[in-house]
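Dear Dr. H.,

I hope your travels went smoothly. While you were away I took the liberty of generating a structure for the chain from your last submission, since the lab meeting agenda had it listed for discussion. I wanted you to have the full record in hand beforehand rather than looking at slides cold. The sequence, exactly as received, is reproduced here:
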Amino acid sequence: MRLTQITPFVPCSNLARQVAFYRDVLGFQVGFQAENYAFLRRDDVAVRLVEVFSDVDLSHPERQGSFYIDVDDIDAVYAEMKPRLEGLDADRVRTPFNQEYGQREFHVADEDCTLVFFGEASA
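The corresponding predicted structure, in token form, is as follows:
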């Protein structure tokens, strides 16, 4: 017996806009979409987007979330996404860098300020 995957629920203020971001910028494929929910997958990684009520401010620091995606060949993943990431405001993307705890990472903020970390163990 073993756990096989974690799939975060990511709140969003506008489902269509967030689906477009995860699909068109981060390269996920839509597996299912309903009125206020979408399931997207890329390789073995999936996210569940859930649209929240319009009065919820997802940009407020108390509402901000994040999740980490472990990858193989972080620099190749970044290079594949780079042309699409260049269309975002510069403060939404942190280019690949080495962390003191032995990971090489890059970070991307989605449409509602959720921070998506991509990383792999550095050599």
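Two observations you may find useful: Strands lie at 9-12, 29-33, 37-42, 45-51, 66-70, 93-98, 103-109, 115-121. The CA atoms of residues 60 and 113 lie 9 Å apart.

With kind regards,
E. W.
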